[in-house]
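Minutes, project check-in
Item: structure for the 435-residue chain
Input as provided by the requester:
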Amino acid sequence: MIKDIEYENPEIIKAFQEEKLAVALAYLKDHSPYYSRMFSEKNIDISRIKTLEDLQKIPFTEKKDLQLFNWDFLCCDRSRIVDYVTTSGTLGEPVTFACTEKDLQRLAYNEKKSFTCAGLRPGSVLQLMTTIDKRFMAGLAYFLGIREMGASIIRVGNGIPELQWDTIQRLKPDTIMCVPSFIPRLIQYAEEHGIDYRNSSIRKIIGIGEGMRDQQFNLNLLGQRIKEKWDVELYATYSSTEMGATFSECEYGMGGHVHPELIIVEIIGEDDRPVKDGEVGEIVVTTLGVEGMPLLRFRTGDMAAKRTEQCRCGRWSYRLTPLVGRKNNMIKFKGTTLYPPMIVDVLDNCRHIANYQLILSLNELGNDDVTVRLGLPEPDPEKDSSFVAELKNTFRAKIRVAPNIEIVKADILARDIFRDTSRKPIKVVDLRPKK
């Protein structure tokens, strides 16, 4: 039996990735209009890129490059494309990605490894509470991965607590996969309708799109809120369409495990140079084994740290800490540097709030401004003023500054958060000019 590369020592993993990198560079030079042009214009001799450290000799690929030259990244004839997907457009205009049959097989392999890391096995039954349509890569990837590992999947789609609980009661899945902020809504529905959710078949929740832990790997406020109500195993994941990979926590919850055969990850600082292991920086990825639209040194805009010590599960492959935020969403508010998750952590611990949305803008002086729209079931101006004052004090205690607060009726705000045109809840609206 071949040993999984994730369990090899760091020296072996590094040498393995450097061999994979040489193959990837040669493929890009021969097949990618964008990268072959870039190598020529920048006088880059790929034969001299021999180590992971040598990657620093190559320029970054940015989201704007994908937006401006989308089809120049395609490395094969369009007749070989079997699936088209688009990014969610979190950092701007969505980008199309084209996948070959080999790319879908790679996605299935990736998700099989990630689900295995999260403790699923052949015979597990996963209820998928996210879309598999709307040109969404993740939903399809999850489906393919579950098939590959010999488990079962129930494709319910997002939202609709009534349908989710009906499915759980009928088909008895042991695992659900969804955006973590949907879980409190699921619990609330169960409590209001007399569903004994604590004794249901669910033993595990895999979260996507949102974090459930802080940088010390403790449950954040949303994770705590879920765990207090529902004592199930919680697993967080990190993924994106661009990298065609998912990093899942193992049972020890100490960061998302990177699959060395699928991706190379760099963490870079403000000077565009690698930071020390354990320091927060921007995640930069180079995909391995992608046939349709591979990427080289792609800046994700996501901020996290790399952990390289061996995990208690035995894996040596490095891990990524929970995301601190997105680089483009960094806020300099009243002299304090913030990321939206820091504000979200405070809001998730407020029991009276039904929903919320952050609005980032510039004030009349051109400085960052933050407004929190709070959704309350029945706004009451007299009661709400004292609640807002108390919440602002909580903000000052937790993050040193208090944002502007606007009270909105919860059902009205829900329409802005859960839009039919978006695959994810829109919790942050950034109105600041793009840099």
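Outcome recorded: The chain has a mean pLDDT of 90.
No further action items on this chain.
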